[in-house]
Amino acid sequence: MSKVDYALMYVTDDSIRDDNHFFAILEGALKGGATIIQLREKTSNTLAFYKRAIRCKELCSTYGIPLIINDRLDIALAIDADGVHIGQSDMPYEVARRLLGNSKIIGLSVSNKEQAEQPNAQAADYIGISPIFSTNTKTTDLAKPLGILGLKEIRQIYKKPIVCIGGIHKDNTQEIIANGADGIAVVSAISKAEDSEAATKELKEIVCKTGTN
Known about the structure:
By secondary structure, the protein is α/β, with parallel strands linked by helices. It contains ten helices and eight strands. Helix 2 (46-63) links the parallel strand 2 and strand 3 (67-70). It is globular and about 40 Å long.
């Protein structure tokens, strides 16, 4: 697998049901400098998810940006996505790896230091610390926010890329990157912005500037 840039992951907003609006935001994120896209569809049926995934793959391919699928290995396999992001209660890592092969990205959500120490997390290509701060985007099955102290603890024991998600915006991005995260994953900071391209560009600049300090 070629080196993946986890600096800025845009996680798509499944509350946006209008496809024209959905894909306009996605293209804005791609133009603005998102380095990886995660398609998350928690409420869609399989056919609707598949159709969005096909269009997402085409758009991401145009910009040369990897697309990963949240939870659904079947969708990832069906469209030949670049990988998946799985949670603690989803398909076990070893099964996902066997099905996807060694060339695909597999990320795993972790909510505490103990999960980050487990073999699944250590084997994954990256972990997503979820949530780093409190968030209104996801309201079910949500652990207590880890905060910066939790990030720093996990950074000490996890050597692969760490991406943080949950309550992230332009005013706290610098603190996250400065304390050990390799990147951020955002939903509403881009999807709810007046200009998704400009919002993405601003976040990307903060991540890149902080990461080089």
